[in-house]
Design a protein that fits this description.
Helix content is 22%, strand content 28%. The protein is built from six helices and 14 strands. The strands form four sheets. The protein has a six-stranded mixed sheet. Bound molecules: zinc ion (ZN).
Length: 203
């Protein structure tokens, strides 16, 4: 697991940590390592802008963001190039799965709204960097700009920048590992893998 300095209730998994949403051996190991409950709140991810308020563990239907005010309830999403984003306040926490479709639909903004007015800080986890995320014009337009260049000189998009824009000035830290280049992470773009890494946030 990768911990973000200053975010004691956030952890970003690697491919070797496994997908603790469905793999209960992985979930037990991750929970033990982090000292958190094995009873996680999860969602069925669909690249939407739907955020659910979780008051207990278990599946919460089709959504791409989870918010809770329940102390000790872990919220989990999984990614393989898409961006995991955790947003934390003193008494509320959110986690979001944000690919370009979710960003275009406003998932990050929806999560911030669902958390209320409490001051917040955010951390963006490992995802495919603009170095490797070649996209067409339609993706640039859909996420509101943030065009960049890949290492090989073609057009790409910087999803982290698009997400920072939706965070409305919230202080944001980024864990800058590119999931496509760094073998610790599953990358759908790299090899079409069905494997995922989980990101977990809790109060
Ligand atoms: Zn890269």
């Amino acid at each position: 697991m990768i911990l973000a300095p200053g975010f004691p209730g956030v952890a970003f998994g690697t491919i070797d940590d496994g997908d603790g949403r469905s793999d209960l051996v992985s979930r037990t190991a991750i929970s033990a390592a982090l000292g958190i409950s094995e009873d996680w709140a999860t969602v069925h991810q669909t690249h939407s802008n739907r955020v659910v308020l979780a008051v207990g563990a278990g599946g919460h239907g089709a959504a791409d963001g989870l918010v809770t005010k329940v102390l000790g309830l872990p919220l989990a999403v999984a990614t393989a190039d898409c961006v995991p984003v955790a947003i934390v306040g003193d008494s509320v926490v959110a986690i979001v799965h944000a690919g370009w479709r979710g960003v275009a639909a406003g998932i990050v903004h929806a999560a911030v709204d669902a958390m209320g007015t409490e001051p917040k800080r955010a951390v963006i986890g490992p995802h495919i960097g603009p170095c490797c995320y070649e996209v067409g014009d339609e993706v640039i337009a859909a996420v509101g700009g943030h065009a960049a260049k890949t290492r090989w000189g073609s057009q790409s998009v910087d999803l982290a920048k698009a997400i920072v824009a939706q965070l409305n000035g919230i202080e944001t830290h980024t864990v800058n590992f590119c999931s496509r280049e760094d073998a610790r992470f599953a990358s759908h773009r790299e090899n079409g893998t069905p494997r995922r890494q989980v990101s977990v946030a809790w109060l």
